[in-house]
Design goal:
This protein is mostly beta strands and 450 residues long. It has a domain at 290-450: Leucine-rich repeat, LRR (right-handed beta-alpha superhelix) (Alpha-Beta Horseshoe), CATH 3.80.10. The protein contains three helices and 33 strands. The chain has a 17-stranded mixed beta sheet, with no helix packed on it. Strands 1-4-6-8-10-12-14-16-18-20-22 form an eleven-stranded mixed beta sheet. A three-stranded parallel beta sheet has the order 30-32-33, with no helix packed on it. Helix 2 links the parallel strand 23 and strand 24 (319-321). The mean pLDDT is 96. InterPro entries: Leu-rich_rpt, LRR_dom_sf, LRR_N_plant-typ, PGIP. Its main location: other. Belongs to the polygalacturonase-inhibiting protein family. Keywords: Glycoprotein, Leucine-rich repeat, Membrane, Repeat, Signal, Transmembrane, Transmembrane helix. Pfam families: LRR_1, LRR_8, LRRNT_2.
């Protein structure tokens, strides 16, 4: 039977299967019962291949190439090969011979070479995801022929060149992700074609120029807009305040200037806002957010003075990054309504005084706390360093006391340039973590005097 020989051909291209993912694929048995295989009820023809590894388990991988024998499985509707890590070789052009193929998800593997132009022949495709591979070259212009597509995910590859203008013909798109490539040029001004688009991810490329005006037409439905880590310039457009459905906005690490639009007060549903590493200036608008989950305004030209009220009152916040934001508070006076779920706080480079002890001793999930270059003054020994805390930077403050034994569990530590004293507990940290204190001694600094 063609289905069985196609599947066994696929298996023959696999050179290593340490977790035994394909051990049930035995010639002469019912291939509809094999792991990862689904069949149509009426004619028992294979219509789905779904094999996935678990990114955190090193043995749940498949190594090998994608055999052209897959083209024998004529009723194949969906091909899902996700997180198998070591599937290599080029994109299998033989897939273009499958008349019923609608869904391709070949994600987080090691396929390489160009995405072939022949992909434009696969006009039944409703979703194409090749994210997390090593594809190079440009996005083929023939992709414009795939007018049934609702999803294109080509992120985390090494693609270059510009976004093909023909993509504007894909009017059914709900999800367009091209992030983490080497794409360049301006972001095309063609978004008025996409009335259904909900997710647009173009971060971590080399795009330049301003945010195109046609993005404003996405306001009714767009929930994720990620344009961070590019070379975009100009001011943040006022129309972004009309995106009532927006959950996540990332404009970080670009060259935006001017103020944040007052219209941002309308973004009442936003959960994740990242404007860090731009050239934005005061004033920052008073927002009407009911609950922010993560906020990063670091490294602009803001002088906020206070941590904004809408941040302090958020019941769900877990990440707060306000480095170099001109904050001048006594930390003991800051009483956020929720501290338990914080997992990262960065308040570096401000003029914050007082003690971090009360704040940190109330957090349960904190992974990182950075507050270097402030005016904090407290006894370091009173700080409860929880088991989850991995990154702690309190350098260039006025801390005193001894370094507690509990720092041993931290992965990255910096308590340099304070007023600490006494013997350093045995740790793996270098001298740079402890230099510039009044009287610390012991490895990695000079030995203590007996």
């Amino acid at each position: 039977m063609d289905d069985e020989s196609g599947l066994l051909g696929f298996k023959s291209g696999i050179k290593s299967d340490p977790s035994g993912m394909l051990k049930s694929w035995i010639s002469g048995t019912d291939c509809c019962t094999w792991e990862g295989i689904s069949c149509q009820f009426d004619n028992k023809r294979v219509n789905t291949i779904a094999l996935s590894g678990q990114p955190d388990k090193s043995n749940s991988v498949l190594s090998g190439i994608l055999s052209p024998a897959l083209s024998k499985i004529q009723f194949l509707n969906g091909l899902y090969l996700q997180n198998l890590q070591n599937i290599s070789g080029p994109f299998p052009t033989s897939l273009s011979n499958l008349p019923n193929l609608q869904f391709i998800y070949i994600e987080n593997n090691m396929l390489s070479g160009p995405i072939p132009n022949i992909i434009g022949n696969m006009t039944k495709l409703g979703a194409l995801s090749l994210s997390g591979n090593r594809f190079t070259g440009t996005i083929p212009s023939s992709i414009a022929e795939l007018t049934q597509l609702t999803q294109i995910k080509l992120g985390n590859n090494i693609l270059n060149g510009v976004i093909p203008q023909g993509i504007q013909r894909l009017k059914n798109l709900t999800y367009l992700s091209l992030e983490n490539n080497q794409l360049s040029g301006k972001i095309p001004d063609f978004f008025s074609s996409f009335t259904e688009l909900r997710i647009l991810e173009l971060s971590r490329n080399k795009f330049s120029g301003e945010i195109p005006l046609s993005i404003s037409t996405l306001a009714p439905k767009l929930s994720y807009l990620k344009l961070g880590h590019n070379s975009l310039s100009g001011t943040i457009p006022d129309f972004l305040g009309k995106f009532k459905a927006l959950d996540t906005l990332d404009l970080s690490s670009n060259k935006f200037i001017g103020t944040v639009p007052k219209s941002f007060t309308n973004l009442t549903k936003i959960f994740n806002l990242d404007l860090s590493n731009n050239f934005l200036i005061d004033p920052f608008p008073e927002m009407n957010v009911k609950g922010i989950e993560s906020l990063d305004l670091s490294n602009n030209k803001f002088h906020l003075n206070q941590i904004p009220k809408w941040v302090t009152s958020s019941p769900i916040i877990f990440s707060l990054k306000l480095a170099n934001c001109g904050i001048k508070i006594k930390l003991d006076d800051w009483k956020p309504s929720e501290t338990y779920f914080y997992d990262y706080i960065d308040l570096s480079g401000n003029e914050i005084s007082g003690s971090v002890v009360e704040l940190l001793n109330k957090t349960e999930y904190l992974v990182g706390f950075e507050a270097s270059r402030n005016k904090l003054r407290f006894d370091l020994e009173k700080l409860r360093i929880g088991k989850r805390l991995k990154y702690l930077d309190l350098s260039r403050n006025s801390m005193f006391g001894k370094v507690p034994e509990s720092v041993v569990g931290v992965e990255k530590l910096n308590v340099s340039y304070n007023h600490l004293c006494g013997k350093i507990p045995e740790t793996k940290f270098s001298a740079s973590a402890f230099v510039g204190n009044d009287c610390l001694c012991g490895s990695p600094l000079q030995p203590c005097k007996v």
